[in-house]
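Below is one record:
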Amino acid sequence: MPANIEHQLKSFQENNKTRGRLLICCPDQSGIVAAVSNFLFEHGANIMESNQYTTDAYEGTFFLRIEFDCPHLHEKEAEMESKFLPIAESFNMNWKLIFVYKLKRTAIFVSKELHCLRELLWEWQSGDLMTDIALVISNHDEAREFVESFGIPYYHIPANKDIRDEAEAEQLKLLKQYEIDQIVLARYMQILTPGFVAAHPFRIINIHHSFLPAFVGANPYMRAYDRGVKLIGATSHYVTNELDEGPIIEQDIMRVDHRDHANDLKKIGRKVERSVLARGVKWDLEDRILVHENKTIVFN
């Protein structure tokens, strides 16, 4: 890892050693915010950011993201997790207490097209993606020189439908070895098996070169050109077993017209893909996304 990136990550950890995040999803009822706020107050924490959303005014689902600062947080981690359990049980909460200084570890999967990979590594280099990019896995060797210039381990694992099980077994072994928290498919042009997806629920982020749900599957730009679209878009989403049907994180568009051919649409689309994927990855790293059924609540 280059010295400047290592310095950025260490500085981030040092500057956030007292910072925590609390994510909550539960049936909506009175008293939730008061109970959580009082819990944080009792542990000497100061709320820095708070976002909440309820799906319905009556008998809906309540979502809450709180970011807080707490002196000596490292010493209080186990105590806070233990003492929050009764509160969580009383409100039937799904919850997660996150300690920000514990950097997430990211794996990037890529095939031949490198524009999304380049964007992620440039964002990482500039300090806009605070994660430890632990490795890059590819079914081709085109990206090796670029990736290794960042000091990131690069693994070439050939993959196709005939050897998918063997390839995924090797990939899963690496993900476990590197203790990966987040997987990013930066134009990785292989379909993942249900077993692979099940091993990492809502931890795999994909970029689809279309404004979903339009033009799912392969060759969306050609089909968009044949349809005569006036807008080109891209979608970042979590991967599920249904192809391109996972919860949507972020989308964006650019305008096109009749003078743009399929290759023009592809070039324009790449610009959108890069930014949409980077935003989705960043929000996931910052714990700003809560999944509800097949939708997301994004506190960006």
Residues 137 and 299 are 30 Å apart (CA to CA). The mean pLDDT is 94.
